[in-house]
Amino acid sequence: MFLIHLTCTSCGLHHDWKHLQNLCTACQRPLAATYDLEKIRRALTPEHLTSRREKSLWRFREVLPLPPSTEPVSLGEGGTPLLRAGRFGNKRGIENLWIKDESQNPTQTFKARGMSVAVSMAKYLGATKLAVPSAGNAGGALAAYAARAGLEAHIFMPRDTPRANIIECRELGAHVTLIDGLITDCGAEIARRKQAESWFEMSTLKEPYRLEGKKTLGYELAEQLDWQLPDAILYPTGGGTGLIGMWKAFDEMETLGWIGPKRPRMFSVQASGCAPIVHAFENGETFASEFPKAQTVASGLRVPKAIGDFLMLKILRESHGGAVTVDDEQMIRMARELGSTEGLFVSPEGGACFAALTSLIQAKQIASHELVVIFNTGSGVKYLDCYDEATS
Ligand SMILES: *Cc1c(COP(=O)(O)O)cnc(C)c1O
Ligand SMILES: [Zn+2]
After folding, report:
1. Pairing of strands 14-15, 3-8
2. N or C: which end of the chain has fewer CB within 10 A?
3. Looking at ligand 1, which residue's alpha carbon is closest to its atom 3?
4. For ligand 1, what atom is nearest to the CA of residue 214?
5. SS3 state of residue 87
6. Ligand 1: which residue has its CA nearest to atom 4?
7. Which atom of ligand 1 is nearest to the CA of 237?
8. Contact present, 271 and 331 (Cβ < 8 Å)
């Protein structure tokens, strides 16, 4: 295995990966995995990858944690298609528009990526009871991977979480608690009880390996584009794990000699009812303040305060990207248009990115010849209530 230690993303302090870790013990900020990239560079090349039969994200085993002798907790996550959106793109004068369709993951969202890696490591390091606050899809993914690993899942969700998520968690054998409040209130409840209950907390970026799972989005994208990166990426942003993970993957791949220094412009897409990153970006702030009265049908974007806010803001600025809000009605409308032109029933979070594309083109922040990748992070099937309501 090539994992060396965990490094604090803020103060740089090293932590031992052989113990279960949450935040940095010195500054309470997120930890990230550090690998011996020079050694990986000698052990693995893009040509090796081409001949691998493994299609899941575990095909990138060398840049993931978990000793090689340990079987990952897997349901076949990752390896999702990068689909051309020719008809939708043409209508808006974008010749080279692609969709990374993450709805084809186990549990129908990209939360599966992070949970496969995080549950694999938690099990390996001896955790038996896993807890997570969830706006919906992280809960479903934890429930699935915990069941597969033979571990307990304790999931805290806002009472108004989409019904599909609540039923999914219960059917997958998780202990579900509904909270009158937001995901931040769910997190507070876990923090209060975790010590007494011996729960290991699996909140995104409060645990170092969901980031590693999401990082594979960046590896897959580079591989699917023949080791070129797009000009722009539109990412529906909640906790920001995918955004931060992809950026980490790009840096690792450059050190490995797989890609050059060019980076895509990264755009965060948020709901107008919950846009802490957009506000902080526009105001030139380093951290984002908690967004008051967060409200949106895109439950994955209903994160009023993210612990990785400073990392996201840094990436958006370094990449010369930006941050855009979309209102709920636009998301649903765009999701419908995309469905009828491209044949994908996308989540409202996915729909939000297609709406944001339209405004970025109008604002001349994206040009017609550019290669643009949009993430459809989940399936519309998990949001039947909100599509149903929008029809009637
Ligand atoms: C969680 C989630 C998001 C946000 O992802 P982050 O990496 O936490 O920003 C977007 N879309 C869907 C469908 C989600 O479940
Ligand atoms: Zn620190």
Report:
1. antiparallel
2. C
3. 300
4. 7
5. helix
6. 238
7. 9
8. yes
CATH number of the domain residue 244 falls in: 3.40.50.1100
Domain presence at residue 144: no
Pocket-forming residues, ligand 1, beta carbon under 6 Å: 109, 111, 137, 204, 236-242, 300, 347, 349, 377-378
- The answer to whether residue 77 is domain-embedded is no
pLDDT at 138 over 70: yes
Q: Rounded to an integer, what distance in angstroms lies between the CA atom of residue 50 and that of residue 258?
A: 13
Is residue 247, in this structure, part of any structural domain at all?
A: yes
Of ligand 1's atoms, which has the minimum distance to the CA of residue 204? 8
Return the pLDDT at 108: 98
Count other C-beta atoms under 10 Å from residue 84's C-beta: 13
Residue nearest to atom 15 of ligand 1 (CA): 300
* Number of domains into which the chain is organized: 1
Tokens of 60: 């990138």
Please report the pLDDT score of residue 391 as a whole number: 64
> Which residues, in sequence order, are CB contacts of 160 under 8 Å at separation 6+?
none
| DSSP type of residue 2 | -
| Residue 390 reports pLDDT greater than 80 | no
Q: Which of 77, 117, 137, 268 maximizes ligand 1 atoms within 8 Å of its Cβ, making it the mutation to test the pocket?
A: 137
Residue 250's domain comprises: 82-106+210-391
Assign 388 a pLDDT band (cuts: 50, 70, 90). confident
> What does the pLDDT average to over 147-166?
95
